[in-house]
Automatic annotation (TrEMBL):
<dbReference type="GO" id="GO:0008483">
    <property type="term" value="F:transaminase activity"/>
</dbReference>
<dbReference type="InterPro" id="IPR015421">
    <property type="entry name" value="PyrdxlP-dep_Trfase_major"/>
</dbReference>
<dbReference type="InterPro" id="IPR050087">
    <property type="entry name" value="AON_synthase_class-II"/>
</dbReference>
<dbReference type="InterPro" id="IPR015424">
    <property type="entry name" value="PyrdxlP-dep_Trfase"/>
</dbReference>
<keyword id="KW-0808">Transferase</keyword>
<protein>
    <submittedName>
        <fullName>Aminotransferase class I/II-fold pyridoxal phosphate-dependent enzyme</fullName>
    </submittedName>
</protein>
<dbReference type="InterPro" id="IPR004839">
    <property type="entry name" value="Aminotransferase_I/II_large"/>
</dbReference>
<keyword id="KW-0032">Aminotransferase</keyword>
<dbReference type="GO" id="GO:0030170">
    <property type="term" value="F:pyridoxal phosphate binding"/>
</dbReference>
<dbReference type="InterPro" id="IPR015422">
    <property type="entry name" value="PyrdxlP-dep_Trfase_small"/>
</dbReference>
<feature type="domain" description="Aminotransferase class I/classII large">
    <location>
        <begin position="50"/>
        <end position="393"/>
    </location>
</feature>
<dbReference type="Pfam" id="PF00155">
    <property type="entry name" value="Aminotran_1_2"/>
</dbReference>
<dbReference type="InterPro" id="IPR016181">
    <property type="entry name" value="Acyl_CoA_acyltransferase"/>
</dbReference>
Length: 801
């Protein structure tokens, strides 16, 4: 499988956003000559606006507008100096007002993102540790990751999971000075809260625990002076809490604000905070508008505004309670999230609401897991009660139609969000198609299977029978695999789609880089199955190639595709798999759009390598047909070593030699942390040794024939395909004998001698294989996960030592 690297992640986000943009629900432009906040114009159509984060509507307040205009007249559009040298004349006044709002020392920042980048590296010392809630805002996570260069450990826990947090505290309380837990006050997608009271109780038990709260979505609409949800829960700001609020969003201006009651820490951050020092300061208009808003926040008026918003929130909650819409979290914040599950359902639902006159936000990866796509609705004082009711009526009308349009149902949505006990309802099988399910290849017609899927890898009929025998009946759960087969036929009994999937235990870091896997393996020395999950995968960890037959030209091809994806979802739920993986697709696969729409993410796999042996009668002919560059490689890096070893082929060896083969394979496996999998059962090698379709290409030194330098484990596919499935190497003599290159050469030589039409060389080491004439193809996998936690956790671990 592939490594999830930063560019891989960014490419995935780009593709997700591109699809959403093409669906007309992202990267839109507002139109019109003015903006009231109540409606918003898109493509010439006025829509009721249920997507704002200006919950109190202060951005339209005449007092803020007047102050901003006067500031521009007096001071210009900007004050182009670093704030470290001199602040614009209004800054001091704003700081005084905001200090009164919070009743604590404050720092004004250009925005919250730059604020986090300035504050976190200043507040966190080298002997501290950071623990992130995995749903804390991206800007906090990104700023925290900057501290990897200082070797500050960064951990992550599942959302609001205090048991995991306490485990991390116990892990570090003896070695770290401060343990920083970073979380949002109000989470921007679902509108749920941080458990502030429980967290403060935990800090009484562990005095090292400190908190960094990003409460920008809790600002203004709740709390004394509108200081937000967190401070409303705390009452007073303790010294072990850093609190971020915003002057944007509900506050109606621009910028962000940090409140800190620890004088020493405040001075440290204020004196030098990276972007706080070097970034441009807020424009005079923004500072003046913020002063006008601060004056409102310090007056009794703020509580009247909060009450007006509360009426609208209560109204919306009341109307929603009379529907069956899947509200993800019921609370009193102005943020609501209606789940749609699959992205394509979200696109459809948003477009339906836009056409009916309502603008809402789409919630999509990476803000939420792909399978947790949905619609975020925000309520503001701009919204009138009759408009709120009509929005709920429109959602109740369009939601089932969006489900129907995208071939899904409410049960699947509720399951995706774990909203209530779920019983999987089997999807209706199209009348024109027949789905056949099997749990062993012996139940499948051998001729038919080999005709459609038998021409590559170790998954012709006999190969799968071999794998079923190997991966069952073991004491270790990683050695027991469940094989499932699906054949979808038309009314005439002609296959439209065929495949097989396996359920097996994977290491979650199989997709991570080698350094991350090395760190995790140290933890597995203590806890064997640390960061491991049951995965439902097309194909299996033993096979490589196109595991899916699909007749794209068949009139029922699209229906078969939909039926297959629904079947997969049912198997995932029945079997309790944490992830579904569809693999070995070419870049231009016709499945791409549908897989994204169903909540799959694409990642790059290692290249696949193969050699075409048709019309190659001898090894001499093969070498002659290589490119001039590859012939030079053969003469320089392979040919000189051929006479230093003996090469033999065995279909059965003595037990002692088989043990050597196994040890050499394990040496390769232990070094291959870039593709980190559990080992195979010992009986695998016994089965190979007893199966006529397997053979071993063995290299030994001429001067020490009892020593095995390397072995290639090769499968003879019944469709004349030779498959060097695994290799074993003595790394102590690897360079001396060019062992791996010699094994590749002998594999090609053996394939020609057997009259094979093709060699499937598999993944990894594509550079070496290409130099001996292999055809290299890009391959992709599609992942569908229950949540983003593992992907984000591995991302946090990247680069840590």
């Amino acid at each position: 499988m592939a490594k999830i690297k930063q560019h891989n992640f960014l490419n995935t986000v780009h593709e997700v956003f591109t699809q959403a943009r093409e669906a007309g629900v992202l990267h839109l432009y507002a139109g019109g000559n003015s903006f009231s906040g109540r409606t918003i114009a898109i493509d010439g159509k006025n829509l009721y606006h249920f997507g704002t984060t200006g919950y109190l509507g202060l951005e339209q307040d005449p007092r803020l507008k007047k102050a901003a205009k006067e500031a521009i007249e007096r001071y210009g559009t900007q004050f182009p100096l670093s704030k470290s040298y001199i602040s614009n004349p209004l800054y001091g006044e704003l700081e005084q007002y905001m200090g009164k709002v919070y009743d604590n020392p404050i720092i004004i920042t250009k925005n919250s993102t730059l604020g986090h980048m300035g504050v976190i590296p200043s507040a966190v010392d080298d002997d501290d540790v950071i623990v992130l809630d995995h749903q804390v805002h991206w800007s906090v996570q990104n700023a925290a990751k900057m501290l990897k260069t200082r070797s500050v450990p960064i951990e992550m826990i599942r959302h609001n999971n205090l048991e995991m947090l306490e485990d991390k505290i116990r892990k570090y309380r003896g070695s770290k000075r401060k343990i920083w837990y970073m979380a949002d006050g109000i989470y921007s997608m679902y509108g749920d809260y941080a458990p502030v009271a429980e967290l403060m109780e935990l800090s009484k038990k562990y005095p090292q625990l400190h908190f960094y709260f990003d409460d920008v979505h809790g600002m203004s609409w709740v709390g004394k002076n509108g200081t937000g949800y967190v401070l409303d829960q705390l009452g007073e700001l303790p010294e072990n809490v850093l609190l971020f609020g915003t002057l944007s969003k509900t506050f109606g201006a621009s910028g962000a604000v940090l409140a800190c009651s620890n004088p020493e820490l405040y001075d440290k951050i204020k004196t030098f905070g990276g972007p706080l020092t070097f970034s441009a300061q807020l424009e005079p208009a923004s500072v003046a508008a913020a002063i006008a808003s601060a004056q409102i926040h310090l007056s009794p008026e703020i509580y009247g505004l909060q009450a007006e918003l509360r009426e609208r929130i209560d109204c919306f909650n009341s109307y929603l309670s009379n529907t069956e819409l899947p509200l993800i979290d019921t609370n009193e914040s102005p943020v609501f999230y209606i789940g749609t599950g699959m992205p394509k359902t979200g696109y459809n639902f948003v477009n339906r609401l836009i056409q009916d006159g309502y603008y809402v936000n789409l919630g999509i990866f990476p803000a939420v897991p792909v399978k947790n796509t949905g619609v975020r609705i925000t309520i503001s004082r701009h919204n009138q009660k009759e408009e709120i009711k009509s929005l709920v009526d429109a959602m109740a009308y369009h939601f089932p139609k969006a489900l129907e349009d995208t071939h899904t149902n409410t049960e699947r949505v509720f399951h995706a969000f774990k909203l209530k006990p779920f019983r999987y309802i089997k999807a209706k099988e199209p009348a024109e198609l027949k789905m056949e399910n099997f749990e062993s290849i012996v139940e499948v017609d051998k001729v038919q299977w080999n005709r459609f899927l038998g021409g590559q890898g170790v998954y012709d009929w006999d190969g799968l029978r071999f794998l079923e025998q190997v991966f069952q009946g073991h004491s270790k759960k990683e050695h027991n695999w469940l094989f499932l087969y699906l054949i979808i036929k038309d009314g005439e009994g002609v296959p439209v789609l065929m495949t097989f999937v396996t359920l097996s235990l994977w290491k979650d870091d199989m997709l991570a880089n080698a350094e991350v896997s090395k760190n995790i393996e140290e933890q597995r020395m203590k806890v064997s199955y640390h960061l491991s999950s049951m995965i439902l995968s097309m194909g299996c960890l033993f096979t490589e190639g196109n595991h899916l037959f699909w007749d794209a030209s068949h009139p029922l091809a699209e229906k078969a595709k939909v039926s297959f994806l629904e079947w997969l979802e049912g198997r995932e739920q029945d079997l309790g798999a944490k992830m579904t993986v569809l693999r070995d697709f070419p870049e231009d696969t016709l499945w791409h759009g549908d897989l994204y729409g169903h909540g799959f993410l694409r990642i790059r796999m290692p290249n696949s390598c193969s050699i075409d042996l048709i019309n190659i009668p001898s090894m001499e002919t093969y070498i002659v047909r290589l490119s001039s560059r590859n012939r030079r490689h053969f003469r320089k890096d392979v040919q000189p070593f051929l006479e230093t070893v003996s090469s033999t082929v065995h279909d059965c060896v003595a037990q002692g030699q088989l043990s050597q083969f196994k040890m050499l394979f394990e040496e390769v496996h232990a070094r291959n942390l870039g593709l980190n999998t559990y080992t195979f059962p010992d009986t695998l090698f016994e089965h190979m040794n007893q199966n006529q379709l397997w053979e071993f290409i063995v290299l030994c030194p001429l001067n020490a024939p009892e020593r095995v330098l390397g072995v290639m484990f090769c499968y003879k596919n019944t469709d004349q395909v030779y498959v060097p499935a695994f290799v074993g190497l003595d790394y102590g003599h690897l360079k001396t004998y060019a062992t791996y290159r010699q094994l590749l050469y002998r594999t090609i030589e053996r394939g020609i001698a057997l009259g094979m039409r093709k060699i499937d060389l598999g993944m990894t080491a594509s550079f070496e294989k290409r130099k001996l004439g292999a055809i290299v193809e890009e391959k992709y996998a599609y992942l569908q996960t229950r949540d983003n936690f593992i992907l984000e956790l591995l991302g946090v671990m990247e680069g840590q030592r």
